[in-house]
Amino acid sequence: NAGVTQTPKFQVLKTGQSMTLQCAQDMNHEYMSWYRQDPGMGLRLIHYSVGAGITDQGEVPNGYNVSRSTTEDFPLRLLSAAPSQTSVYFCASSRNRGNTEAFFGQGTRLTVV
Amino acid sequence: GESVGLHLPTLSVQEGDNSIINCAYSNSASDYFIWYKQESGKGPQFIIDIRSNMDKRQGQRVTVLLNKTVKHLSLQIAATQPGDSAVYFCAENIGYSTLTFGKGTMLLVSP
For the residues A79-85, what does the mean pLDDT come to? Predict the structure, then answer.
C-alpha cells in the first residue's frame, strides 16, 4: 500500500498565485487532515474532514480551502498565496476522528516569494 | 530552507544510553496522549499512545509515563540507537477529536 501520497513535494509560488496541494490515501480512512509545520511551532491543524462531503476548520484555516468529494482525496487550495504561507504542509489520515494513530504523507515544502 | 529542528530543545545522548523526552501539557480534559517521531524530510510517525486513565504503557524499546498530578508526559527510549535521531512530538486527543501537537524535542544520538 502507498499510504498517504502528497504532491508536489516542492513548490515555489509568487504572491497572489493560487494552487492546489494534492493528498490521496488508499487505506479507506474516514478521517483526513491538513497541517502546516513552521520552525519551532510544531504542527498546526488547518482543516479536517470526518468523511466524504464533510469538512471543518482547524486552528489556522484562513487563506485555505478544502473539499472532500471522495474518501480517498482531500486537496488543499491556497486561494491567493502570501509569504506567511511559506511552510511545510502535511496531509494525514486515520481510521476515524478519535483514532490516535495518524498516517502522514511526506509533506509539501511551499515557498511563497 | 530552514529546518524544522531549529529553535527546538535538544537532547544529546550516546548510543546505547537510555533517553527520556519530556512534555508538559495543559488540558486536563485530554483523553489520550500520543508520541510521534519525525525523521528529517519525512512526515511524523506514530510511536505509542496512552489513555488518560493509565500512568504507564510499554512498547518495543519505548515506555510512556503519564503524571496527571503535574500534567507531565515522558517518553523513555531504551538502548538508544542512531536511527532514533529525530524530532519527537507529544500530542493530545481531546474529546476523541483532532490531535493537538506540542512543539517538539530533537533527539541526537552519537555513535
Answer: 96
